[in-house]
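Hello,

Our lab assistant flagged a job as stuck in the queue for most of the afternoon. It eventually completed. Since we weren't sure the result was trustworthy after the delay, we are filing this so someone can double-check. Below is the sequence as submitted and the structure that was eventually returned. Let us know if re-running is recommended.
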Amino acid sequence: MFVLPKGIIKRIEAVCRNFLWDNSADYRRATLVGWDTICRPKEEGGLGIKDQEVWNKAMVGRLVDWVATQRDSIWVNWVQSNYLKGQAWMEYKPSSNSSWVWRRICKVKEEMRNGYVNGEWSVQPGGYSPAGCYAWFRGTRPRVQWDKAVWNGWTIPKHQFMGWMVAHKALNTVERLVRFGVVIEEKCYLCGIADETIEHLFCECIYSRRVVVELNKNTAWTFPVRDLVEWCSIRAGTGLQKGVQNAIVMSLMYQVWQQRNRSRNEMSLLRPERVAGLTPLSQFGNKLEEHRFVSLSTGLGRFKNPGGELRVPSLKSGTARIYDPRGGPDEDMPSKKKLCAKALLGSTTGY
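-- returned structure --
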């Protein structure tokens, strides 16, 4: 356990922050989400990255607790004989000529004072732990509604990050770039009709809506992006249904944003049907392979995969495809035992 100088902690945080936004240690531009928000737990809207300054305090707090509980160690005995000299630990004040490390330990002790009752750490049962002290220092915030929609086992990480950015409305849309003086024109890079906001890009844009129509031509999908991730979190359905439908939404947002950036940087754009093809349900094949069968509360029963094939719904209503992990050709499942996308996702009216 080391007492780190603030300069070192700030440098560590800078490296972590730069790597998050630019995959390097030398990122120089403004970040899209504040570091304090990033360091919150995922259920509170952050990424779960530890605040290094608070974490170091929590680790130093272990030394404070050792002295408070009179732990049997050489270091505690040395502190008792050279610093405390019979004084009560909670009432002790360091002298001005003490080392900066000792003064820092005493400062952390003062911040932890309210956590002790009768000399015992009372914040969590079982005694002191750095994780418990870290949470105590950070405090708690209300839980966001969309955390389980974004951070679920069905969504791949880059789509999860995209969903997290949308939830914080942190994408560099034209509306945001105009405010910063980067661009002058406010029109959408995908349709060129309306001003580009997050709401327009995923909800109102003709291109985005066409991508969704191509994804499932039998269902009129709409994006209620103003509360998109919250909508995912309260969507009715089984755990499997909700997991897949949320993953599809995150994948769609990711692909639409990729095409928006392609239009801006390369002045080219894939056709909506091709973009829809980039978000197939086949990406969930590995997940289903772990189970070897799928169980849905839709009255379809359980269908065991013959020979280890994976029954994954296709994008066409009424059919399902068999994805063979051994690399064999896929074929339509018999109509009697099909797992169609509509059955998996439930009713998608108004989605």
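-- support follow-up --
The delay was a queue issue, not a problem with the job. The result is valid. DSSP finds 16 helices and six strands in the chain. The chain has three domains: 6-138, 147-279, 284-345.
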